[in-house]
């Protein structure tokens, strides 16, 4: 049991493995203890997603509905209008979301899209919301342009361990992901980076994925932990379901390795019971995506989440307030 939770970037694989494999009650107790040192345990941050460009993606991510290489029948759209993004963000704000995350099904943005992306960031920021984008790999100029337009966060997931990466994606490498993450951080944009569990990976892949995030030069500010949403006609459509306890262990490991990061209980909540989500919050998750659609897949409806918060005595975290003590 740790007395305090110092911010460390030198965790070893043995340490991470030992934490992950603690008796479950010890693991949850330790995660909750660390959580309380940095956050109000009864506050959860709400983010809202919008797909600003859907489908037709050139990458071959085996989990994704939006890859043109997968069989999923999702038609490709163009980048949506700036005004539409701002009006959707306004609605999300009225619904209590404090962070607006705009996602595009791209390997990387084209320079011709940059002016519209900058206008989206400025428009959403003017509403008083935090802005986040997830657009694929970025070059240095694109990073600077997004930063200068006021982008607060960039989401770029490592998705799995370095070892398992090529089983899931072949059109880019794990190192490509780390490279974009480093560019984003060096430019001063806050990093949101996590991954997916339940893709047929081994326990060591879940541990190594969290270890890779926790040994970056700085911990990501947000760490989304997604449970795979199996999508018909993708290579992972029929993958065996992960034991939910393994998912909770992964959340707890993220909390203990990265004590000050927001750990987001991301995709897959539609199939989770209130009890399972409560266990994830107890294990240190303190952020969710709200609204009935993620990018293309289902998410619990707002009234269901309001009822869950009421059942658990959880209140939404205010914007600009990370709950830190
Ligand atoms: N194209 C950009 C990229 O891949 O970086 C941004 C959008 S992409 C859809 C954002 C993230 O959503 C992925 O990195 C992955 O972690 C997550 N994701 C996508 N499909 C998912 C699924 N079926 N289940 C769980 N998470 C998923
Ligand atoms: C993240 O880690 N999860 C979100 C967000 N970052 C962009 C996306 C989840 C996508 C789930 C599948 C879909 O909606 O298509
Ligand atoms: Fe494209 Fe992103 Fe989906 Fe991969 S995860 S196929 S990069 S939209």
UniProtKB/TrEMBL annotation:
Pathway: Cofactor biosynthesis; biotin biosynthesis; biotin from 7,8-diaminononanoate: step 2/2
Keywords associated with the record: 2Fe-2S, 4Fe-4S, Biotin biosynthesis, Iron, Iron-sulfur, Metal-binding, S-adenosyl-L-methionine, Transferase
Enzyme Commission code: 2.8.1.6
Enzyme class: transferase
Record has Iron as a keyword: yes
Source domain of life: Bacteria
Cofactor(s) in the UniProt record: [2Fe-2S] cluster; [4Fe-4S] cluster
Family membership noted in the UniProt record: Belongs to the radical SAM superfamily. Biotin synthase family.
Assembly notes: Homodimer.
Protein name according to UniProt: Biotin synthase
Organism annotation: Parasedimentitalea maritima
Gene behind this protein: bioB
């Amino acid at each position: 049991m740790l007395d305090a939770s110092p911010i460390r970037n030198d965790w070893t694989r043995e340490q991470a493995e030992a934490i992950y494999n603690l008796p479950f009650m010890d693991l949850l107790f330790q995660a909750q203890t660390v959580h309380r040192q940095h956050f109000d345990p009864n506050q959860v941050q709400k983010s809202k997603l919008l797909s600003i460009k859907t489908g037709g993606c050139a990458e071959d991510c085996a989990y994704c509905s939006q890859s043109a290489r997968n069989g999923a029948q999702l038609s490709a759209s163009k980048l949506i209008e700036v005004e539409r993004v701002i009006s959707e963000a306004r609605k999300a704000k009225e619904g209590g979301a404090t962070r607006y995350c705009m996602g595009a099904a791209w390997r990387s943005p084209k320079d011709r899209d940059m002016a519209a992306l900058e206008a989206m960031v400025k428009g959403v920021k003017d509403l008083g919301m935090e802005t986040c984008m997830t657009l694929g790999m970025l070059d240095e100029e694109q990073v600077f342009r997004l930063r200068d337009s006021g982008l607060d966060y960039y989401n770029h997931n490592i998705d799995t361990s370095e070892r398992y990466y090529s089983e899931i994606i072949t059109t880019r490498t794990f190192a490509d992901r780390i490279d974009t993450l480093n560019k984003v951080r060096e430019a001063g944009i806050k990093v949101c980076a996590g991954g997916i569990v339940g893709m047929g990976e081994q326990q060591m892949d879940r541990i190594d994925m969290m270890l890779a995030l926790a040994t970056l030069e700085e911990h990501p500010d947000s760490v989304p932990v997604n449970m795979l949403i199996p999508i018909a006609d993708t290579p992972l459509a029929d993958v065996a379901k992960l034991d939910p306890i393994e998912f909770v262990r992964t959340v707890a490991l993220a909390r203990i390795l990265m004590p000050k990061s927001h750990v987001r209980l991301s995709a897959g909540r539609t199939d989770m019971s209130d009890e399972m989500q409560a266990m994830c919050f107890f294990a240190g998750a303190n952020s969710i995506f709200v609204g009935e659609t993620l990018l293309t897949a289902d998410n619990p409806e707002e009234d269901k989440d309001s009822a869950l918060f009421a059942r658990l005595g959880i209140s939404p975290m205010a914007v600009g307030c990370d709950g830190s003590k």
